[in-house]
Design brief:
With about 140 residues, this protein is an alpha+beta fold. The protein is built from 3 helices and 6 strands; from the N terminus they run βααβββββα.
Length: about 140
């Protein structure tokens, strides 16, 4: 499968629990970091948007754990982004390297708040549309 963005990361010791595997909450950190890097690469700044009173926030999270990561494991965090109405959905996966074993599948529905009010955002709409047509 093709992905719009991928980021290679490595598990750090402190991200693991007593069982020696990555604590479940850390997968959300990995996914969030991947989303932020993806948007930064496309010159979309959360800080700039926030200064304008616009916040791009997670409204719903779904994750499925497949194979645990362990300390020192390298992994690939990938994503695709779609839009349906007011909702922007990041479809994300984490694969262990080098064997590309699927470790986690995540879906993150995000929305835009303009001064606290749910709305569309022209900049993000144009950005997502450009990704869908391959620009």
């Amino acid at each position: 499968m093709k992905y719009m963005y991928q980021l290679e990361l490595k598990v750090r010791d402190y991200e693991c629990d007593l069982q020696g595997i990555v604590n479940n909450a850390n997968y959300q950190h990995y996914y969030e970091h991947t989303r932020h890097e993806f948007l930064i690469q496309h010159d979309i700044s959360f800080a700039k948007l926030h200064d304008e009173g616009i916040d791009f926030v997670v409204a719903r999270v779904e994750m499925a754990y497949k194979t645990p990561l362990k300390s020192g494991d390298s992994f690939l965090s990938v994503l695709n982004l779609t839009q349906e109405g007011l909702k922007y959905t990041f479809h994300q996966k984490i694969y262990r390297l080098p064997d590309m074993k699927l470790c986690n599948v995540g879906r993150f529905d995000c929305v835009v708040l303009d001064h606290g009010k749910l709305c569309r955002n022209d900049e993000l709409d144009v950005f997502v549309a450009s990704l869908q047509i391959g620009n």
